[in-house]
Amino acid sequence: QVHLVESGGGLVQAGGSLRLSCAASGRTFSNAAMGWFRQAPGKEREFVATISWSGRSIYYADSVKGRFTISRDNAKNTVYLQMNSLKPEDTAVYYCNTYPGTSATMSTRPVNEYDYWGQGTQVTVSS
């Protein structure tokens, strides 16, 4: 079983920044892609960003391109999400996950196909 712990969320004004972290432990896979998802109140969980093991293959949702940056530290089994120019519509609970395949596939994989999720971290952007 994979254990995922997200952190770094908080309350920020529009235009501000936050940096999220997610540490994975347990049954993690070598060469796995890692990614971020989010779920706003009353909405389905959606893909945000994913990064390959090497860090060379990265995908973003159109809604966050140019504002969010995903990165990872494989030695720590940790993935990060730097969020700049935050907007009220970015308000959501943010989750991370891992996938033993390509980041390209992870970017389109249905969220209900993941077996495990962490508790998430709340991001609230005020206008």
What does the secondary structure layout of this molecule look like, with pairings?
Elements: E1 2-7, E2 10-13, E3 18-26, E4 33-39, E5 46-51, E6 58-60, E7 68-73, E8 78-83, E9 92-99, H1 103-106, E10 121-126
Parallel strand pairs: 2-10
Antiparallel strand pairs: 1-3, 3-8, 4-5, 4-9, 5-6, 7-8, 9-10
Give structural notes.
The structure is a single chain. A hairpin with a 4-residue loop joins strand 7 and strand 8. The protein contains 1 helix and 10 strands. It is mainly beta. It has one helix at residues 103-106, and strands at 2-7, 10-13, 18-26, 33-39, 46-51, 58-60, 68-73, 78-83, 92-99, 121-126. The strands form 2 sheets. The chain has a 6-stranded mixed sheet. It has a 4-stranded antiparallel sheet with strand order 1-3-8-7, with no helix packed on it.
Largest sheet at a glance?
6 strands, mixed
Order of strands in the sheet with the most strands?
2-10-9-4-5-6
Task: Say how many strands there are.
Answer: 10
Note the overall shape: globular
Provide mean pLDDT, rounded.
95
Helix content: under 10%
What is the strand content? over 45%
How many helices? The count is 1
- Structure classification: mainly beta
